[in-house]
Amino acid sequence: MTEEELDALAEFLDDPEAPPERLTLTAFDGFVAGLAVAPIGVEQDEWLELALGVIREDEIIDPVIVDFMARHAQVAREVIRTRPEEFLPIFDSIVEMDGDEELEEISPVEWCAGFLLATDLFPEAFSTLADDDEAVNLMLPFVVFGTEEGLDALEENQDGFAEELIDSIQPSVIGLYRYLAKLETVGSDITDLSPEEQDD
Prior knowledge:
Blueprint: H1 3-13, H2 25-37, H3 44-52, H4 63-82, E1 92-98, E2 101-107, H5 109-119, H6 123-127, H7 133-146, H8 148-155, H9 161-192, H10 195-199
Antiparallel strand pairs: 1-2
Helix pairs in contact: 2-4, 2-5, 2-9, 5-7, 7-8, 7-9
């Protein structure tokens, strides 16, 4: 997508008058990353309903915007799966004042919340992750930044922990895709075997 197209998508999703359930651009970026790492696909109408939230009676969604959302989801899928070194999450940028000085900080909170929302579409695939330490570590940054409980716990563990987690988001996305893809491949191999071969 071009910068102009992404700006148009941001203008729509970040509209202050949009329904509160509608994902912001950064949350939508996390959401499509979550769709991309899942081992199975989901119909566009289903994930669009989640991303757009309640559509008011007087609201008409421009088909161009829907096309931008679909293309952004497709690009995220292709990059994460084929060119992971190019994957860069779109995090919020928050400006805070320190006296007379402006400090710009990166916030992955909405991005991670969007990512977790996508995982709700694949309960079977993601429910297995809690039983594996590697998978738990891969999910950690999303759970910490994407849930109220995680943010509360984060406040008690500063000392650079937040920065470490932010840095781990990009490799965790790629790691989750590879982890889940491996599980799906192993599951398919077992399913394809005859009962006798499975017992062996």
